[in-house]
Each structure stands twice: as structure tokens, then as C-alpha cells.
Amino acid sequence: MIEDKNPQRTSLSELGEFGLIEHLTKNFKLDQDSSVKGIGDDAAVLDFKDKKAVVSTDLLVEGVHFDLSYMPLKHLGYKAVMVNLSDIYAMNAKPTQITVSIAVSNRFPLEALEELYEGITLASKIYKVDVVGGDTTSSTRGLIISITAIGEAEEENITYRDGAKTGDLLVVTGDLGGAYMGLQILEREKEVFKVNPNNQPDLSMYSYIIERQLKPEARKDIPELLKALEVKPTSMIDISDGLSSEILHLCTQSKVGCNLYEDKIPLDPQVISTCEEFNIDSTTIALSGGEDYELLFTIDQADYPKIKANPNLSVIGHMTDKKEGIHLVTRGDEKIPLKAQGWNALREKEE
Amino acid sequence: MIEDKNPQRTSLSELGEFGLIEHLTKNFKLDQDSSVKGIGDDAAVLDFKDKKAVVSTDLLVEGVHFDLSYMPLKHLGYKAVMVNLSDIYAMNAKPTQITVSIAVSNRFPLEALEELYEGITLASKIYKVDVVGGDTTSSTRGLIISITAIGEAEEENITYRDGAKTGDLLVVTGDLGGAYMGLQILEREKEVFKVNPNNQPDLSMYSYIIERQLKPEARKDIPELLKALEVKPTSMIDISDGLSSEILHLCTQSKVGCNLYEDKIPLDPQVISTCEEFNIDSTTIALSGGEDYELLFTIDQADYPKIKANPNLSVIGHMTDKKEGIHLVTRGDEKIPLKAQGWNALREKEE
């Protein structure tokens, strides 16, 4: 058998803009009842009947939000969709449509964009959202992805950031810090690779945290779960920048304070062991790491019995009077003021 | 009086991401009935009641779609909104909300972004659309703007690209080729400026075409006019890539042919005189220039009496059987097959 040393590379200019759009979008099918018209006209047409529409948008820039040296394009496409769907779930709503715009320099062959769209297509199938529009254009350098997600909700279920009340319990889904520690592993391996390209690292012991970084899942199950449990959160936000930053958003908008208990923050064993390996404090990572795309919400204390047995949900604190401030209560029972030290802050410190 | 030789330059890093978003978006007010919740949560919430929602998105990249050496940032912000609203009007719908995402390198001070947002704010006020969301992030190089426009329409008024029938009249609004010739003037002046920075050009004789390039207006008036005239177009599209490219879109999607009459194409006297000055054929410019953001639509012949007296509308051809093909009928009565030679094609030829 002859090995193909030159995998196919089709130049984007061969296809032209309309050819490229047609090629990349021909597999998108409309499944949502609210998608009246998708790609192919000046605009998509949506019909929400008696429900409310919910809209969110994110822009991802190569070199700022992702590094293609360890982020496979298919995963990038998947993650770009997740980032947006997560915002819709954080409204206690159901995403129904997305638009996908990309700008790409001519260093990318068609096959690279196909991979990116494979990830987008996979995400749209699993999460049952229709791709109804977009824009495909060239960039002078690098890859830029802009996604807008549209969702629907009954008015009475929509959950804003400003509804938390004194005494409410603070609840987080899943566990925290994994995405950031996964990134640390990938960045370390990138440095090792630069020195010795033949090194074949065994990353199996980091598989969970690497997956948290490369292929995060938005919490589709949570709005459904809350509905089934008959719990309407009083406020909700998704964790993209890190737990402390999101708590500050909820507290500021709801005009309340908060006590967060260090010993209640859910951490995966891989996060704990990798933090030990890197000699970093795991609480700091959970507070500031970001990109976990878990949901953070508050509930009335009366709803506690409905959620307490659920392995997906951890009560990590409670809301207080605004004048009491926003604090982390440590394992040693010290009260430390919580600061907004998101993702960007961490990245700047490293550079 | 002491002249301030150093206009204020505030570094973006001083503000931080949340400070920047707060600063740039604090003046956005919600005026549309359908805007339930705007900026400040995970997503915006919209309520279209018994109407359909219409969604369109565009991505603009510095060095590809605009050149800041002759495009003032305020105009760029305005134009970025127009590009999107134009797509909504092309559905015979009314834009109601936009989301605005920007990625910007740190070579831009805060004052530059303020100028950009001034243009966006002005456009949103004049066109009565609410800015309900967005994302502000950094880029490694240059400025990227992604806008998504959302509109509303009664189901029976929505006009797609695929409804043209044999015998329908082809109608265009305004006049064509101005934006492209305005760009030629601006590019020529840029070259002159490089050679002699003290040159103060008198561009007053090109004022209309320069305005067409720098500050285009979307045809807000046309859906309203068509409603007042009781005309429902059978198909519609906006002219972003050039007349011939848009005619091909309508014909392909509607499965019809077309005869376009060269002598009916509306041209402004400044376009004609500037084409003479540059020794370019004005029909070629109207066909391929693009960026005019006029609307192109087809109507049933029975509706001709309703539109014939209107100075905003020109009948430029009629739709034929698909097998007759798509042709330009020249002033010399020759039939030439119409080719898709959009904006990009022209730009590539020049380089």
C-alpha cells in the first residue's frame, strides 16, 4: 500500500465565496418547529408563537480564545457552539437556532473548514439546534468565529441574573477547575513537543480535564432537570470566566451579598491531583479558572429538599444582605473578600 | 489658547473587559416593544407575539471589508449596522434589535471604540433598532465587527428570493454603482496622500458617491412604501455584491430567466462622470460594483400601475422562462449572458 504523504488540500479560492458557503452548509437540516426558513435568503425566519425568544452572541479569535496547535478544528467548532448554548441554558431556556459566521485567512485549506464545520454540525445535532444563517469571509490573519444562539422559553421560566434574595442557596452544577487545568496540561505538552517532537506523551491520567478544555458540554440537562424537580431558580448565570467572577455578577445585579464555602466547592479528583502536581491551590483554580460552562444559580431555601439528593447539584453557599459583602469562607473558617479574578486576569499574570 | 497636541488616549487595559462593555453600552436604551431584556444578562429576551422573527448576521474584517485609512470609525460603525439592516429590509421586514460584537487589538485606544460606538448608536437611533447584546474581546491584529440583526414581519408580507415568476417585472430602488466609484476616489486620494501628505484635495464634486461608500443608508422606506402602495413583491434581495450577482441569485432560486435592459439601469450623474474620468464602463460598475445596499425585487405585472410614478423605483427588466437564460440587453440591442462578477471578483482583478 502506498501511503498518501500529501493529504488533500483544496484552496478556498477554487470554490469562491458562494461555492464555499454552499459546500459547508449543505448538510444543515431544519428540525426545530420554530425554524421557518434557514440558510439561503437575506435572513432566516423564525416563529416562536406564544413563547419568548432569547438571543446570545460570542466572538472567538485565534490567538486570544484558542490555540490551533493543540485545539483540533473539529473540537473548536464544537466548543464554539457550546459557549453560546451555555448562555441560553443560563436563562433557563432551550436553544433552538444558531447563526455561524467565520473569517478565515487563506492559510486554511477547505479541508480545515470542513473539520471545523464537522464539529459545528455534531454540536447542532446533539443539542438539537438548527443552523439558520451566517457569513463566510476572508481574514488577513487567523481564524475568527462569531456565533449567535437563539432560544425559546415560557415567560415564567426565564431566569435573570438579578433575582437572588437574601437567604437563597447558591448552587453549582458539575465540578469546577477542570477546563483550566486541562489547558495547563496542553500548554505543558506543547512546550515539550517544541523541544522533542518525537515525544509521545501518555495523557490518559489527564483525560477528564483535557476533555473539559477541548470538548466542553453545555448543561442542556439542567433546565430540563429543574423543570422536572419543579424548581424555578431565583437567578442564574453560566460559568465562563470563573466562579468568583460569576458570583460577583449575581450579587451585583441582585443587590445581595454572599458567603461561599470553600469546602463545598465541587472538584474532580483529577483537578485535585493535577493542582498538586503543578503546586497550585485548587480553590484558586475553581474560583478563577473559567471555561467550565457549568451553571451557577440561586434557589429559595424552601426548594432545598427538591435538589439535595441530586448528584449534579452542589449547594456551595448562601446569599446574604448586601451590606455583609461577598466572602469566601475558608476551610480554616476565615472570611476572605471574593475578588473578580477571571480567566483574563490569570492569563495576564502568566505572560 | 493652548492647543491640545495630544488628544486623549485611554488604554483599553485600564478599563478591563467588563468596564469596557459597561462604558460602551451604557447609552443603549430599549425602545422596541419586542425588547423584553437587553444587554446585561446571559442573553437578551425578545417577544414577537404573533409576528415572525427574522435574523441576519454579517462579519466585517479590517483589511478585507474596510480600510481605516479612509474610513472614519464613526462611519464604519454606522455602515456595519446598515449592512445588516439591509438584509432585514430585503425580507420585507422591519429590523427591531441588533447584537454587536467587536474584537479589537490594543493599538486602538478607548476613544477609537467610542467613535465606533457613536456610529452604531446613531444608526440604531435613526433606524429605531435596540442594541440588545454583544461581545467585546481582544484580537491579535486589527478590528473585527460582527453584527446580528433581528426583525419582525407579518407572515404574509415576508418576501423570499425564490418567488419570482415568468413575466414578473424586475425593479430596483435608487441608483447603482455609486459606492464602488466612491471607493475609487478614496483609494486614489490615499495614493496621492502617500506622495504628498500636505495635499488638500477638493472632493466636493464627488460628495454623493463618497457618501454612498462611507455612509450608506439601508432602504428603510421601501417596505413601508410597498405596504402603502399595496404591492407585495414576489421576490426580493438587497444589492451588496452587485446587480448581476443579485439577479443571478433571484433567478437561480426562483428557477426563472431574466432580461435586464442596460438603458434602464439607474445611474447618478456623478457615477457617469466619474466613470468617464476613470475610463470605466458605467454599466460594468452598476452590474459588479456592489455595496449600494439598494433593494432589488420582482412584482407581478398587474402591480405596475401602482409603482410606475414612483421616483424611488426603476423597472429594469422582466423575468422569463428559465430556458431562455439570464441576459443583459445592451443599448445596441445585443443580448449578452449575465455573469456573476461581484465585488470580490473586481477587487481580485485590480490586485
Quick synopsis:
The first copy, chain A, is an alpha+beta fold.
Q: Which quaternary structure do these chains form?
A: homodimer
Under CATH, the topology of the largest domain in chain A can be stated as Phosphoribosyl-aminoimidazole Synthetase, Chain A, domain 2
What is the total tally of β strands of chain A?
13
* Percentage of β-strand residues of chain A: 15-25%
Order of helices and strands of chain A: HEEEHEHEEEHHHEHEHHEHEEEH
Going by CATH, the homologous superfamily of the largest domain in chain A would be PurM-like C-terminal domain
Q: Which class best fits the helix and strand makeup of chain A? A: alpha+beta
Described by the principal axes of the CA atoms, the overall outline of chain A is globular
Alpha plus pi helix count of chain A: 11
The averaged pLDDT of chain A comes out at: 90
**Sheet of most strands of chain A:** 7 strands, mixed
Tell me what you see in this structure:
The structure is a homodimer of 351-residue chains. With 351 residues, chain A is of the alpha+beta class. Chain A folds into two domains: 12-157, 60s Ribosomal Protein L30, Chain: A, CATH 3.30.1330.10; 169-350, PurM-like C-terminal domain (Phosphoribosyl-aminoimidazole Synthetase, Chain A, domain 2), CATH 3.90.650. Chain A is 35% helix and 23% strand. Chain A has helices at 12-25, 73-89, 110-126, 178-195, 207-214, 221-228, 243-254, 269-278, 282-288, 304-307, 343-350, and strands at residues 35-37, 44-46, 52-61, 94-104, 130-138, 143-153, 169-173, 235-238, 257-261, 295-299, 313-320, 326-329, 335-337. In chain A, a hairpin with a 5-residue loop joins β12 and β13. The longest helix of chain A has 18 residues, at 178-195. The first copy, chain A, is globular and about 65 Å long. The termini of chain A are far apart. At the A-B interface, α1, β2, β3, α2 and β4 of A face α1, β2, β3, α2 and β4 of B. β3 of chain A pairs antiparallel with β2 of chain B, so a sheet runs across the interface.
